[in-house]
Amino acid sequence: MSAAEGAGGTVPRVIVSLTMLDGRLVRTRRFAGPSYVGDPINAVRIFSEKGADELMLLDIGGNEFDARTAPRLADIASEALMPIAYGGGIRTIEHVRTIIRAGFEKVVLNTALHADPSLATRAADEFGTQAVVASMDVRRGILGGRRVRYRCGRARSAVRPVDHAIACERLGCGEILLTSIDRDGCGGGYDEQLLAEVAAAVTVPVIARGGASSREHFRAALDAGASAVAAGNLFVYWGPRRAVLVNYPDELRC
Fold first, then answer.
1. Residues with a known catalytic role
2. H runs (alpha helix) in the chain
3. Which of the four pLDDT bands, split at 50, 70 and 90, describes residue 3?
4. pLDDT tens for residues 230-246?
5. Distance CA 127, CA 129 (A)
6. Cβ of 186: how many Cβ atoms within 10 Å?
7. Where are the chain's structural domains?
8. Which of 94, 123, 155, 200 is packed most tightly, with the most Cβ within 10 A?
9. CATH second-level architecture of 14-239?
10. How far is CA 88 from CA 73, 157, 191, 232, 234, in A?
11. Rounded to whole angstroms, how far apart are CA atoms 117 and 103?
């Protein structure tokens, strides 16, 4: 894919999205059944060596961020030669400060956007909008309508994705990480309709996440309006038997 095909004439980002539980990297399918795939420090080191564009590390334990893990996060960030973001249990501005001081360029907020939306504004005021990513997990209901979920997908809300995206932009979030829970880990491609609706409603970049298994899926997401694409299983599994192999193939670059 040429540079001209990216948003605004720039090369679109391909972001490695890693999920962590109890300090270990895991992969999920529709946000359930976590399976162990490795150590975060080793994985970040490998992705750095392979020249990954960007990396997001998301803790899916559902617990409030423990500032005592800052030295561990600093060790992880020290291996990153690319921009790196962290999300998971962030509830206070001090949590944000701790993560930024540990060496992460961005924080990813999810549950806090429902519990204390002003945190996004305070973080953006202190560190800039480019440092605040709104994570939006979306699931389709029984009657087909999509609604935003939080607390790692376990808590339901009555909020529609487009409304939530608009609110997050107004709060000061500089990007939106849009995840389809229904497609997470399934490899059938992103939810292009959802991407198109959200991207058309906001001016900040929208990152597609949930369902990618090929470069064609990346292209389809970008065509739908995404400014960047994120994937996890695609970069940690290899072959039909899904052997664990941390990889960042050149043929998957946009």
1. 137
2. 40-49, 70-78, 93-101, 112-115, 118-127, 161-171, 192-201, 215-224, 233-236
3. very low
4. 999 888 866 565 666 67
5. 7
6. 15
7. 14-239
8. 123
9. Alpha-Beta Barrel (3.20)
10. 12, 19, 23, 16, 22
11. 24
